[in-house]
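Why do we bother with a discrete structure alphabet at all? Because it lets us treat a fold like text: something you can write down, compare, and reason about line by line. To make this less abstract, here is a complete entry for Methylenetetrahydrofolate reductase. Read it the way you would read a sentence in a foreign language you are learning: slowly, and without expecting to understand everything at once.
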Amino acid sequence: MALSLFTRREDAPSTQVVSPQMEAFLQGYSIEVMPRTAEKVEDFRDLLPKGTRVYVAHIEGTPIDDMVRTAARLNAEGYPVMPHFPARIIKDRATLADWIARYQGEADVRQALLLAGGVTTPHGEFDSSMQLMETGEFDKAGFTRLHVAGHPEGNKDIDPDGSRTNVDAALLWKQGYAERTDAEMAIATQFAFEAGPIIKWADDLKAAGVDLPIHIGIAGPAKLQTLIKFAIACGVGPSLKVLQKRAKDVSKLLLPFEPTEVLSELAAHKAANPDFNITNVHFFPLGGIKTNANWAIENGGAATKPASVTG
């Protein structure tokens, strides 16, 4: 779909009515990029509100040089950068320390998303994000914020039986880590498409003693076929039925899927329950970062489209 369908013209402000609940829920949202997708964006200041946290996804095979270069570019444009540190593709502690030093020295990075990584066989001595945390390298380097992965629908790589036993135990360990260190921590989750199970998962975590803030993963607007492909690849099972139901509706099949419904329901729940532990939205721009950024603007993620700045 053409970008112009998502872009607000500067000389003709959108007449779309933005829900105050949605606007409040989208404040402080974050978004994810990869080095190869970031290269296609001329200037992020044309797309994202000032201060938007940008995660840089580290996919197996991506050179660390590309990761650091992307982080440096984003930092120069005024965005706090949170690179991925996938445990299973980090060879050893020396490599971890080198990555941290490069991110700090070349891109002024002080925050990271720690995760196991989508690799079956570890490349070296690390198998989990907990092992990365136990090295003490992030604390020694003065990282002020660490995010860890959450899985509202479970993770069969970690719990093959379909339960949440191991992932929940890991989050309890990370809750303890947050309590005994100075790190600001949050849970950044895999994307899901249905509000009800997300709310139950978040409430269950809190009842179990995990009260870390949750940054809920949401797939940005994309073709239905694209979302189904990513959902299957990422193990998003239970809420896949939302997409499959839509695919049966011929009138909607060729239209882009937008996250309006799930976010509206979550925003309403947050407004009615201010202590609800989902505090932020994290976008996976599966249909393209420009499309996602413009959708966020149109739906309350920014009052006006951010303009390029210099200096």
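What the structure line is telling us, in plain words: Residues 1-14, 303-311 have pLDDT under 50 and may be disordered. Residues 18-301 form a domain with the TIM Barrel fold (CATH 3.20.20.220).
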